[in-house]
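2024-03-11 09:14:02 DEBUG pipeline.ingest accepted 1 chain
2024-03-11 09:14:02 DEBUG pipeline.ingest length=421
2024-03-11 09:14:03 DEBUG pipeline.predict start
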Amino acid sequence: MECYEALFSAVFNILSLYVNIRVIKLFLHPRHMNAAIKCFIYALVWFINWYVYYMFHILDLTTTSLFFGLLFIAYFLFEGGRIKKIMAAVASIVLVIGAENVVWLVFGRGKASVENEAVQGICAALLALIIILLIERFFTIDKSVCLPGSSYLNMIFISVGSGIVAEIIVISDSIDRARAMIGLTIICLMNVGGYYLFEKTIEAYGEKIQKSIMEQQVKMYINQFDIISQSQQRIRSIRHDLKNHMLLLKAYLMEEKCNEALSYIDRLESGLDVSNEYAKSGNMAIDSIINYMLERTGDFCCPNVEIEVPDHVFISDFDLNIVLGNLLDNAIEAVQGAKNKQISIKLKYNKGVFYIGVHNSYDGILKRGRGKFPGTKKNKGYHGIGLVNVQAVVDKYKGIMEISNTGDFFKIDIVLYVGVT
């Protein structure tokens, strides 16, 4: 084997191993561990598999070596049970073999030159990566942290273009074997780097969204603590003058002035109310989100809030923030353009079933939103985007979301099965 062929086989094995690892990630979650250890394990598996291929050139032996290498990676670097790890390694091998068979059907297996075998190997790896991208886009990745579809189309375009360029390099009469193999090596490196950067971009985007939601949750909890502090202050104030209040009420009752006594009790009750406390269910997460969001309604709307939920945690704060935050944000913006400004919020939990209903008046004009969802936002760039994120959470809990509008009223009703994730 010439040195440039050895170089190509080494780099192509990096691409091939990367494809297999991406398949494993569809089934298993990576463990949190030292980056140096991860790199060492990946490098060890790559070197052994490349060495077996380089020394023996036996396809079945190389495939067996790769399978045990993937099991080793899955065992040490990923979470999950033993059976699931074996299935992930098997699926990885099957997907790659399937892609190779498709490529062989297209190109034919009769071409035995090193360059043609290299092109077929690259095309099979790129086809497998495209399949992985599509699976991630439509089935596995959390839709709330998913990049726009154009980003995935761009990666597919790069893959297809790489395959075409590789074929052009091989069939060109003006390029000798050495340069052809070097060109194919560069194509492999470019695609490994491109897909790796794309993968890291998705991770960074997800972390950014999570950080943003966490920051909003902090603001919500601070707002809720302020509400609790105000309420406690008013209770202490009334308790301080409780004796005087009781004496005056007693005097009213002794003189049979019931109306005056009732009026005085009403004034005491109003003294306990906090102006921006719309929700007081005892569930800190729900109360915080609703009170924080509805604070924006100010004087233009008086929301109707009905909550029947336990005070303990029964759903992820992160998911709850996505659902309630987006629904209330949409409702508050939509109601500002309505003549009859109304917002109705109903939350009810019973035996693992969580119902969320947000109904609001709007100007009667539905704008075309992202995907299948309508929008009422003034900013055209954000029509329906929030509902796409809400739908991702609904799908996570195997739930149902129904959207309807009657006249000048827009309704969203959601059922989540919070015992199923």
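2024-03-11 09:14:41 DEBUG pipeline.report The beta strands are 304-308, 343-350, 353-361, 400-406, 409-417.
2024-03-11 09:14:41 DEBUG pipeline.predict end
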